[in-house]
Amino acid sequence: MQATAEIQAAGSPRRSQKHQMLKDKQVKDLIVDKRRLVEVPYTATLADTINTLMANKVVAVPVAAPPGHWIGAGGSMILEADKQTGAVRKHYIGMVTMLDILAHIAGNGCGDDDDDAHLTKKMMVPISSIIGHCLESLSLWTLSPNTSIVDCMEIFSKGIHRAMVPVNGRSENVVGVELTESASCYRMLTQMDLLRFLNDQQELKAIMSHKVSDKQLQAITDTVFGVTNKAKVIDVIKCMRTASLNAVPIVESSNEITEDHTQLVNGKKRKIVGTFSATDLRGCPVSKMQPLLNLEVLDFLKMLSNTGMRSSWREQVTCHPESSLGEVVEKVVSDNVHRVWVVDEQGLLEGSCIPK
């Protein structure tokens, strides 16, 4: 959410000494309990990568390749080297997200009932071939462990959703994001990790008490596009690919005969009945994916819920314009979602709150 400037101002010693903590705390304090980096080799297939995402409950993985043969995403040069000898073992060439995978699956020739062979072929491509399908994976960043929480907030507010943090890295005295790094190992830091940290800080209660409708926060995105409950999964995926959306609200279809269920619709002032996210596809077994792509989107979510691969298809994570920023952050953290839909008293969509 775009409350970064407000929190940064509050974190300045000139405004309040009690927020000095945000400057004293560093990124390395947030990765103490983080597990080893989950990654895939450049030779892994798309199916292998989906299985890795599913097994580790993550939505993105860096792709590792032998050094000296690749140009990293965005011109990056992020290396893993032996701690003792300094010999380079790996070159991380990019980050693959679920949105990249959606974009690949939604390409030409997928979704027909007789197209099992085509989808199987798509699932067997090397993961290195789909890096950069979407904007986010066109770059790969590292974040110095010495970066302050305030600076980290500013970086993540500019559209960077995750960064690799070097452990025993070469650039120990550098602060901020880098495209070049060599370290013996890395940890992944995400926007969600930062939100969890901020949610636990009592010092931020005054800021967190602000309403999300407060114009100073700029927390609500008024424009919201969705899909109807009659849309097929494959059409939803194609819409998300075209608009580079990680998630869309599912709204009740209107009685208008002319409504196109294969396209995005204006969700404003419409009844929300569900949410489809790129991560929902992660929970779909690769072997069963083809026939499921032709289900209506709510039927697909019900199937995931009935098989235990999704907690519930009925409950929507929503808030009201009068909700506090703290309430919204708590919902994001506790429900492990990346957006909260803003609805009015009748449950009609007004917009969304999305961490940025």
From TrEMBL:
Q: Name one Pfam family in it.
A: CBS
- Domain CBS residue range list: 317-349
What's in the keyword line of the UniProt record? CBS domain, Kinase, Repeat, Transferase
| Gene Ontology MF terms | kinase activity
Q: Does the keyword Ion transport apply?
A: no
Q: Does the keyword Kinase apply?
A: yes
Please provide, in alphabetical order, the Gene Ontology terms of the cellular component aspect for this entry.
Answer: cytoplasm; nucleus
The record, for InterPro entries, names: AMPK_gamma/SDS23_families, CBS_dom, CBS_dom_sf
Where do the segments described as Disordered lie?
1-22
SUPFAM superfamilies per record: CBS-domain pair
Provide the protein name: Putative SNF1-related protein kinase regulatory subunit gamma-like PV42a-like
